[in-house]
């Protein structure tokens, strides 16, 4: 292999992301120096946070640079190494971006065992999305057995894990998802107690019916009207783990009319970025890995074929077209 392809950010989106905001390039495979590793990526992770990085607006991380490889989590295999901790053939996960091949100094690169857990799962349930679910549930929501928790984007990579972990803790778990197929999956396969289809046009009534005893904790991935509908259902001293606001990533109105319930229900709302809490990752990943290997944590993947498919798959992700974790298979 003497050349490879990568996708760079060609332009900053204004509103909706377009395929023309990206550019596919061919590059020569570089030689590696002492202390470096050459990785052939097998899978690329697509995640909602990437939309925020494409903007120059102030955020928790620096914007994605124009004309540089798009940021993204990856899972692949070492094909050349001059690094003492990595050998040819090692399976690794990292953040090497939208590229078939990458050179790295090994920083933030992690070896993984694929004997009981598929490589792709390390970008989902046993990776960053799974850790976001684990951290938000355990450190912020802290639900007790018998409490009712609501999980938005319940069929997605993060929400699906939150709900299953909540059931393992003895909670009543109510999901919110888009469409009857996703809601059926959330209840029938993931084991949620109920799922509200926000596209059915009866969000307030359906959410009330699904939460007869109110809501004790919310895992929020969406924001906007769905969060607004949940706030009046909250019980006193409820907790909200704010993981994402995908409803507003393309510039949609995110205003909250029921803001007063933060006061009247004495709610705790905490936003978090899971990569700022790396001290919890060893424990969380160990627990998630054991659950996946033991068949106690189910997951679903949407897989696009080939790097060139990444922009359209990412655009689909922002519109909820994916089912479960969105990946791009590169090899």
TrEMBL record:
Keyword Oxidoreductase among record annotations: yes
Gene3D superfamilies in alphabetical order: Medium-chain alcohol dehydrogenases, catalytic domain, NAD(P)-binding Rossmann-like Domain
Domain Enoyl reductase (ER): 18-328
One Pfam short name: ADH_zinc_N
Transmembrane domains' residue ranges: none
Keyword field: Oxidoreductase
InterPro entries, per database record: ADH-like_C, ADH_N_2, ER, GroES-like_sf, MDR_fam, NAD(P)-bd_dom_sf
Keyword Oxidoreductase annotated: yes
SUPFAM superfamilies reported in the protein's UniProt record: GroES-like, NAD(P)-binding Rossmann-fold domains
PANTHER family for this protein: PROSTAGLANDIN REDUCTASE, PROSTAGLANDIN REDUCTASE 1
Protein name per the record: NADP-dependent oxidoreductase
Organism in which the protein naturally occurs: Janthinobacterium fluminis
């Amino acid at each position: 292999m003497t050349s490879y392809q990568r996708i760079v950010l060609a332009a900053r989106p204004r509103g909706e992301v377009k395929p023309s905001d990206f550019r596919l390039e061919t590059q020569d495979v570089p030689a590696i120096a002492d202390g470096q590793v050459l990785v052939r990526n097998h899978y690329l992770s697509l995640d909602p946070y990437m939309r925020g990085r494409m903007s120059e607006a102030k955020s928790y991380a620096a914007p994605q640079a124009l004309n540089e490889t798009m940021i993204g989590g990856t899972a692949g295999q070492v094909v050349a190494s001059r690094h003492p901790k990595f050998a040819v053939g090692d399976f690794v996960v990292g953040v090497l971006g939208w590229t078939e091949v990458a050179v790295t100094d090994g920083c933030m690169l992690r070896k993984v065992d694929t004997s009981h857990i598929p490589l792709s799962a390390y970008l989902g349930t046993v990776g960053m999305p799974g850790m976001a679910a684990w951290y938000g549930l355990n450190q912020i929501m802290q639900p007790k057995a018998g409490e009712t928790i609501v999980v938005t984007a319940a069929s997605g990579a993060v929400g699906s894990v939150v709900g299953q972990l909540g059931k393992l803790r003895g909670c009543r778990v109510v999901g919110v998802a888009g469409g009857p197929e996703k809601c059926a999956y959330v209840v029938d396969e993931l084991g949620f107690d109920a799922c509200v289809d926000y596209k059915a046009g009866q969000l307030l009534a359906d959410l009330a019916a699904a939460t007869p005893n109110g809501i004790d904790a919310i895992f929020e991935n969406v924001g906007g009207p769905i969060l607004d509908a949940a706030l009046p259902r909250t019980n006193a001293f409820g907790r909200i783990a704010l993981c994402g606001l995908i409803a507003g990533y393309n510039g949609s109105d995110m205003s909250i009319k029921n803001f007063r319930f933060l006061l009247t229900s004495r709610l705790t709302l905490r936003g978090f970025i899971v990569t700022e809490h790396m001290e919890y990752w060893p424990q969380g990943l160990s627990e998630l890995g054991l659950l996946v290997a033991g068949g106690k944590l189910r997951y679903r993947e949407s897989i696009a074929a080939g790097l060139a498919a990444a922009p359209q798959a990412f655009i689909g992700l922002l519109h909820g077209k994916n089912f479960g974790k969105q990946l791009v298979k590169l090899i």
